[in-house]
Amino acid sequence: MVRQGAERDPATVDLDAFPVILDLRDGDVDDVIPGSVRVDRLDFTAMAESIGGGGTPALLYCGIGEASRIAARELRARGFTGVVSLAGGIRRWRAQGFPVVARRSPAGRYERHLQLADFGREGQDRMRSASVVVVGAGGLGSPTILYLAASGVGALTIVDGDTVEVTNLHRQVLFDDGSIGAQKAEAAASRVTVLNPDVDVVAVPAWLDDRSAYGIVTGHDLVIDASDNFATRLALSDAAARAGSVLVHGAAIRWDGLVAVLDPRTGPCYRCLFPNLEEAEESCSAVGVLGGVTGVIGSIMAVEATKHLIGSPDRRTGRLITYDGRSGRFDVLSVEASTDCPLGHPRPR
């Protein structure tokens, strides 16, 4: 039982007795007490929300014990009777040999982004506040998801109704032998959490169709089409157009791939890009695909997505990037909205 109003020496603290541990230090830190959450030392509302019930045992600590003592006194006055301040702060805790874990500074994680012209702190903050939905966690979705997660996108929804098969592993780098048989969306979300715990990731282990597409797309800043069939692509494109969202589309087969960035508010959609889709579509399972080609295309999709998320002056829509893996050649083509498109997009002037 935690004694009310206590200031406790590290030697008398059992971490298991505290379901809530709050770190009140400012700025970047090298290590933390296991299980702790960073909270501003002056934000008593956030502290109260973290603690929950008034009698919940909560351990507060800072650098030397002063800020946590003041905060504990204020919280106890507000009825949070289970609050305890760590005497001497983490400095004494560490000196007495109690456990700490290293904490990598978010600024350190994204340092190379912060050094980039036209990215910097503002771009990283925009990444952090952005929400992206990726449909398809296969050969294209794998590098796209990994790079967006590593780059610090704030929220990521991964949609895929398939399970991992051994034939996926030569190109779908989100997975390994231990993933075989698992739901792709769930396995991908688990991989993202390990790669970057800062990302709020949601797995949707379901197939996207005409009925579900709009509900899945709504609420996201960007839509990424990494699917592998015309029906899903059309449903997703129509939903993105209805939601007024930029769509980053990718495809790869054999030695070839393409990326299209489309904004139906100002130009073409997927139907404009491919107005005459064939009844019988080719598949990688039938004709094959080079694993590295999906990596190239997925990486370009991540780059194009990032440019839109940070508001880069180099972002473009209404264009098609093609890649020939045999020759190593890239081509870029402009695409205009079709006058016959049933969605009736505006034509660029």
Topology (elements, then pairings):
Layout: E1 7-8, E2 20-23, E3 31-32, E4 37-38, H1 44-51, E5 58-61, H2 66-77, E6 83-86, H3 89-95, E7 101-102, H4 106-109, H5 111-114, H6 120-129, E8 131-135, H7 141-150, E9 155-159, H8 184-195, E10 200-204, H9 213-217, E11 222-225, H10 230-243, E12 247-253, E13 256-262, H11 270-273, H12 284-287, H13 291-309, E14 319-324, E15 329-334
Parallel strand pairs: 1-6, 2-4, 2-5, 5-6, 8-9, 8-11, 9-10, 11-12
Antiparallel strand pairs: 3-7, 12-13, 13-14, 14-15
Structural features, described:
The protein is α/β, with parallel strands linked by helices. It folds into two domains: 7-103, Rhodanese-like domain (Oxidized Rhodanese, domain 1); 109-334, NAD(P)-binding Rossmann-like Domain (Rossmann fold, 3-Layer(aba) Sandwich). It is 32% helix and 19% strand. It is built from 13 helices and 15 strands. The chain has helices at 44-51, 66-77, 89-95, 106-109, 111-114, 120-129, 141-150, 184-195, 213-217, 230-243, 270-273, 284-287, 291-309, and strands at 7-8, 20-23, 31-32, 37-38, 58-61, 83-86, 101-102, 131-135, 155-159, 200-204, 222-225, 247-253, 256-262, 319-324, 329-334. The strands form three sheets. An eight-stranded mixed beta sheet has the order 10-9-8-11-12-13-14-15, with helices on both faces. β5, α2 and β6 form a beta-alpha-beta unit.
